[in-house]
Specification:
34% of the residues lie in helices and 22% in strands. By secondary structure, it is an alpha/beta fold. It binds guanosine-5'-triphosphate (GTP) and magnesium ion.
Length: 391
């Protein structure tokens, strides 16, 4: 098991989940910490709980300051805009502000002194007909996951984004820089390696028991093990959604809503330095999970032309154009969706009643056998498809 928590601690967790008052929740989280043994298996869970306490305290502080009419400190949350929100993260001085300036309309200060950027800075980057919101977050340092240098706020922002650009500096030990960032993300339960599966446990009332949906598969455990685990946390009725391959540990993690996966790429800046090529080779060997590693120079503006397309590929998204049956012209802005999206997913997003009235669709583009093919709701779409919904 991931945590080996005592029965008392598990019951405390059930209380925390049910609690709606923020100050009371903080109190319960503190009690949970005192019941949570200190060992390697619970290290990340303890950090996760501490992060929650800090976030709740911040929320309370902000609400108080709003009531008093104050500003509440630097803004650390940005509403998502465009097709995706991508955070630019890394140690100080790697050139994140230079990168944001070169690619977007944003004008963050660029300086040799470390920790120049002290609050998140958003900018917009266009790729063909979609736009990404890039956010430079203040630099991460070793210990960020424990709260150093506003680390918890920075990591919360990263957690909330759709994808990450880890930026390193080819003139200054990029392998060490990458490893430091990867470690802080790992400690914060932000996964950069794509998990084999995903699981979500939705607690429900009534007496329907534990129901499993989603078509995924449990590995190294049985449905009975899963039910026993949930029962040990006081969960008797729940909908467990499983996709891909999921272990019992994954199910337990999901109860703490701790692990979250973020698609990631690496930008290796300052490629203009003499020794950059050697460092780039070392970096390629050190990075895991088949990430795209893009060498750039913000000084010479080299390699930057590939960034937008790389972000698009990293996010595994597709663009779907729609048109009305009797119209010739498609809508100018596509619907942006995840790879593997079906016609049904799109109709649900376009209008709440459209999927109920749906009869068939016509498709033009890569997923169609011939232009205007008539397809059903389960048809899987491909980037740049044009669809026409018939009700
Ligand atoms: N040689 C070289 N210098 C660069 C490059 N990109 C940025 N710099 C310099 O690196 C220093 C730091 O750049 P910033 O863009 O402020 O770095 P940052 O990551 O935003 O740093 P903080 O916000 O302070 O953590 C500045 O002196 C930049 O001029 C590059 O491609 N090549
Ligand atoms: Mg900066």
């Amino acid at each position: 098991m991931v945590t080996n928590l005592s029965v008392k601690a598990k019951i405390k967790w059930a209380e925390i989940v049910a609690c709606r008052s923020k100050p009371k929740k903080i109190e319960l989280l503190r009690e949970f910490l005192s019941l949570c043994p200190k060992h390697k298996g619970t290290e990340k869970l303890r950090l996760n709980v501490k992060r929650r306490i800090v976030n709740l305290e911040l929320e309370i502080k902000k609400a108080k300051s709003r009531r008093k009419g104050g500003g509440g400190g630097p803004k650390f949350f940005y509403e998502k805009e465009g097709a995706a929100q991508v955070t630019i993260i890394g140690p100080t001085n790697v050139g994140r502000s230079s990168f944001l300036r070169a690619l977007t309309n944003a004008k963050p200060e660029v300086a040799l002194r470390p920790y120049t950027t002290i609050r998140p800075v958003p900018g917009t980057l266009s790729y063909e007909d979609v736009q990404f919101q890039l956010i430079e977050v203040p630099a991460l340092m070793m210990g960020a996951a424990e709260g150093k240098a506003r680390g918890l706020q920075i990591l919360s922002l990263i957690r909330n984004s759709d994808g990450l650009i880890i930026m390193v500096d080819l003139s200054n030990k990029p392998v060490e820089q990458y490893k430091m960032v990867a470690e802080e993300l790992e400690k914060s339960n932000i996964l950069i390696e794509k998990p084999q599966g995903q699981v979500g446990v939705v607690r429900q009332g009534g007496s329907a028991g534990i129901r499993i949906t989603g078509g995924g598969r449990l590995i190294n455990c049985t449905v009975k093990d899963l039910k026993l685990l949930l029962l040990s946390y006081g969960i008797k009725t729940a909908l467990v959604k499983i996709s891909g391959k999921v272990s019992l540990d994954d199910v337990e993690h999901s109860l703490f809503q701790s692990n979250i996966y973020k698609s990631t790429m690496i930008v290796a800046n300052k490629n203009d330095f003499l020794w950059a090529k050697d460092e780039f080779e070392k970096l390629l060997k050190a990075v895991e999970y088949g990430f795209k590693v893009l060498p750039v120079s913000c000084k010479n503006l080299k390699g930057l032309e590939k960034v937008a397309e790389s972000i698009f590929q990293m996010l595994q998204i597709i663009r779907i154009y729609t048109k009305e049956p009797r119209h010739k012209e498609p809508s100018p802005r596509p619907v942006v969706a995840k790879t593997g999206t079906t016609i049904n997913d799109i109709t649900k997003r376009l209008h709440s009643t459209l999927s109920k009235k749906f009869k068939y669709a016509r498709v033009w583009g890569s997923s169609a056998k011939y232009p205007g093919e008539k397809v059903g709701a389960r048809h899987v779409l491909i980037d740049k498809d044009l669809i026409e919904i018939h009700t």
